[in-house]
Write a structure and sequence with these properties.
This protein is mostly beta strands. About 15% of the residues lie in helices and about 40% in strands. It has helices at about 5-20, 135-155, 155-160; strands at about 25-35, 45, 55-60, 70, 75-80, 85-90, 100-105, 110-115, 120-130, 170-175, 180, 185, 190-195, 200-205, 215-220, 225-230, 230-235, 245-255, 260-270, 275-280. Strands 10, 11, 12, 13, 14, 17 and 18 form a 7-stranded antiparallel sheet that branches. Strands 1-9-3-6-5 form a 5-stranded mixed sheet, with no helix packed on it. A 4-stranded mixed sheet has the order 2-8-7-4, with no helix packed on it. The termini are far apart.
Length: about 290
């Protein structure tokens, strides 16, 4: 049986040993965060501690080069296609949170940003990051906005603002198609549009060959060989499959005055095969007084 003095000494030693035991560390947690995307809303908080890594796992691909941190206080350990591992080099402070941000490679919201804050007993080591699912009305409004922007880009107003529609107006002249039995192409009736500063030849082409064809370059000349500057060649679809038909557009400058009123157009494909259209007539120019 311990004597009173011995018992008192044992209690003192036990208390000292208990005080010397290391205190348990913070609990390591896994959590989920949903981005709000609102610019006026505070950034979502992530609980962190010095020297403890935090892995963010995103619901879409991210741009590695877009990661931003305060390099004096946060180290980027690793960046994956959908993940980001960072480590606070200093203890986060309540009044000075450590910010981490990255850009999504697809869709909105484009930016994902967080602040690392201290917590007395917990640390987030794995954070699942998701974006909010658009509500039906939001998706519908987004579609309407996109359609509105598309209509605006193709509206008469946009055409006028681009200086393509001038007081001189636009004239047009149809021309006959022709069959190129040797090359395997056949064109239908086309139209030569003429503005004050530009020209546009449009025609439908049938690919009767057994190989696909992609128009690449074009040359246009007057009856006497005078060249007309070609700006660009486009088609829809971009590649004409065997047996397929499509529209071809050749945009030009206004033909020079000495080029006459009849032109020959040759469009060459990426493989060197070409189609030639002759007897393209210049649309009648509007007299100055009748504009």
């Amino acid at each position: 049986m311990l004597q009173p003095g011995t018992l008192a000494l044992a209690l003192v030693l036990f208390s000292a040993m208990a005080g010397a035991q290391p205190s348990p560390g913070p609990a390591l947690r896994k959590r989920s965060l949903t981005l709000t995307g609102g610019p006026s809303e505070p950034l979502p908080e992530v609980r962190g501690a010095q020297g403890v890594g935090i892995t963010f796992h995103f619901d879409g691909p991210i741009l590695e080069e877009s990661v931003q941190v305060d390099e004096d206080h946060v180290r980027v350990v690793d960046v994956g296609k959908r993940s980001l591992l960072v480590e606070p080099l200093t203890a986060p402070r309540e009044n000075e949170p450590l910010e981490v941000s990255v850009l999504y490679a697809d869709g909105a919201p484009r930016r994902a940003a967080f602040v690392i804050v201290p917590h007395p007993s917990e640390v987030d080591v794995w954070v699942e990051v998701t974006r909010p699912t658009p509500q039906p009305e939001e998706a519908c409004q987004a579609r309407l906005d996109a359609l509105g922007a598309r209509c605006g880009a193709h509206s008469p107003t946009a055409f006028r603002r681009s200086r393509l529609l001038t007081p001189g107006g636009i004239q047009a002249k149809a021309f006959l198609g022709r069959a190129d039995t040797a090359g395997g192409f056949e064109s239908e009736q086309g139209v030569f549009f003429l503005g004050e500063t530009w020209g546009l030849v449009e025609f439908t082409l049938h690919n009767r060959t057994g190989q696909p064809w992609v128009p690449r370059v074009a040359t246009m000349k007057g009856k006497g060989g005078q060249p007309v500057t070609v700006r660009q060649v486009t088609a829809e679809p971009e590649e004409l499959a065997p047996g397929e038909s499509g529209l071809v557009w050749v945009e030009t400058d206004v033909p020079p005055a000495d080029a006459g009123g009849k032109f020959t157009l040759e469009v060459t494909g990426a493989d060197g095969r070409s189609v030639q259209l002759a007897d393209i007539l210049l649309p009648p120019r509007t007299p100055e007084g009748k504009r």
